[in-house]
């Protein structure tokens, strides 16, 4: 993973994403990868509130569904252009998250998680039961495909792939800038210790709320992309199992990193696809694999690599500090006698 560090590594990953459609000639593979990219974008948001701020939001899939339904309702029922509806998907999701954030972020630990679990289930019930707005269990059908310049429509698998990939690249870049900034370090200080962060003058309520809003904003945008990609919506998108899937992506890839959730969100669907030959028994293999990874690689793939790298650097520093200083070389001429040829 030496070459996956810094700009070189990210450039290689972007190039791999650009080349992928030419490597695979199967539209189904493009669909699987595009769906993985959308959930990777949502997982980046969950990783911000969970991995960097230390608050486990179990309503994350509900906010993703909210963003998707904003696009679906506005485009299908009110004929709003897709991109306007898409822009509103993130904004409206953040606005809905604002009062919930005020309430939930005053809680800590498992109390916060239980509260958000209840909020997520309420969001699922609202989507399922409010038929006049969300179409209920029938779902929203006929969501228009995203449009481009000159009347171009992203209605083909390859075009949709590149559109989703572009949003993932931009989303990952912005998230990287956030977590490496002073704001990101503030989030990490809150994660490590509320009391210590507060003693340093950090406003806990304001920064927790900001992290929560950024997180659900990412979820809303991912939901808006999902609506334009799948073009059909049902209440299942708000199910808590999607949040647990994204949590699995974080744990396996490396929670509290940028690359980890991306690797988890992209790699796990492909692993599941390759186990489809086992049909309903594939989870008998899939489940224990995840358990073994969590037990033996608790920091995830990327997190374990970074921890190993830090230990190696520490050991090398200790060796250098413990090494005896080299004796100086005596360069003066010997005294008391002449030299002979």
From TrEMBL:
Span of the signal peptide: none
Bilayer topology: Multi-pass membrane protein
Alphabetically ordered keywords of this record: Cell membrane, Membrane, Transmembrane, Transmembrane helix
Subcellular location: Cell membrane
Primary localisation category: membrane
GO MF terms, alphabetically ordered: branched-chain amino acid transmembrane transporter activity
Pfam families xrefs: BPD_transp_2 (PF02653)
CDD domains: TM_PBP1_LivM_like
GO CC annotation, single: plasma membrane
InterPro entries: ABC_transp_permease, LivM-like
Entries under PANTHER family matching the protein: HIGH-AFFINITY BRANCHED-CHAIN AMINO ACID TRANSPORT PROTEIN BRAE, HIGH-AFFINITY BRANCHED-CHAIN AMINO ACID TRANSPORT SYSTEM PERMEASE
Protein name: ABC transporter permease
Source organism (scientific name): Piscinibacter gummiphilus
Lineage of producing organism: Bacteria, Pseudomonadati, Pseudomonadota, Betaproteobacteria, Burkholderiales
